[in-house]
Amino acid sequence: MSILLAIQGWDSADWAERFARLAAGREIRVWPDAAAPDGVRYAVCWHPPAGLLAQLPDLEVMFSLGAGADAMLADRDLPDVPLVRIVDPSLTSRMTEWVVLQVLMHHRLQRAYDVQQHDKVWKGLVQPAADAVGVGIMGLGVLGTDAAEKLNILGFDVAGWSRSPKQIPGVACFHGNAGLGPFLARTDILVVLLPLTPDTANMIDYDLLANLRRTNHMGGAALVNAGRGRLQAEEDILRALADGILAGATLDVFHEEPLPPDSPFWTHPKVTVTPHVAADSDPDYLCAYVLRQIENYESGRGLENVVDRVLGY
Length: 313
Ligand code: NDP
Ligand code: OXD
Prior knowledge:
- Helices cover 31% and strands 18% of the residues.
- The chain is α/β, with parallel strands linked by helices and 313 residues long.
- The strands form 2 sheets. Strands 8-7-6-9-10-11-12 form a 7-stranded parallel β-sheet. A 5-stranded parallel β-sheet has the order 2-1-3-4-5, covered by helices on one side.
- Helix 1 links the parallel strand 1 and strand 2.
- Helix 1 crosses helix 9.
- The chain starts with a strand and ends in a 15-residue tail after the last helix.
- NADPH dihydro-nicotinamide-adenine-dinucleotide phosphate binds next to helix 5.
């Protein structure tokens, strides 16, 4: 019984080498070169081609090599076997590093100082303390909770929004449709760590951004999105930047990735672009996580972090 790697957009040869090294004694097949369907018990995937997994008669468990499983769930023929996503401390801490970096960059007006440096201007700008700044995190799951806790330690006035109620010490928790308005109204810097589902697609639109608080030292709200590109209405972000609703944005994820060369985000003076690397983790850890789950499954201890196919995350 073998493990099939079905990976697009990342270097599958690297992953094959890694699995061969860490999964001693297991047969590793790599799509499309060595993908005979019989005998594949586990599929480890990143953006696998639609329909591929349905052709594996012996498949028992599918793994997403990312924390988000939306690309796999988009496959209409996805087999009815458990789909496990990545939850790993190394990925979580990398995401939190990135979120803290971006929140501080907006709060400490770093882009304005970059312009001043370019123009050789020596001038301090008005800078309130962190506790005067509302940071709101959409998505209080594994990643959102860790980021909220670390931003709380830095002294920000942190809030979070989720589907179901939460309690996180030091974090004002809101949930559901009723909680969204009050959450946005106290948020100067909006951090998006939601999964992409039918309920969340395109929800970061002009109307939502217009409800953020913008009476702050940044001269508008700031948007930080590391969830998924299709959570955001990209034209609306540009409009909100032009109108001054947004003073700045940091985007790690986009509708189309890689971001096309003609995207206005590349050169926008108020936008910071990173290439879907917010939680760039050590791939050996992710591989070890998958192998640990397979061992647990085979020894009857069960799988963790199985995606809820109804909720879509
Ligand atoms: P989790 O599943 O742990 O958390 C998801 C959170 O979103 C939960 O709090 C959930 O609410 C909330 N949520 C889901 N649907 C809704 C909704 N309709 N309304 C309000 N809240 C909702 O996911 P993770 O924290 O592990 O990851 C989040 C996302 O981050 C991933 O799905 C992926 O898209 C993205 N990601 C991006 C990376 C990058 O490099 N840019 C890297 C890793 C992940 P509740 O708690 O009530 O269920
Ligand atoms: C993701 C990841 O889901 O990189 O984007 O884990």
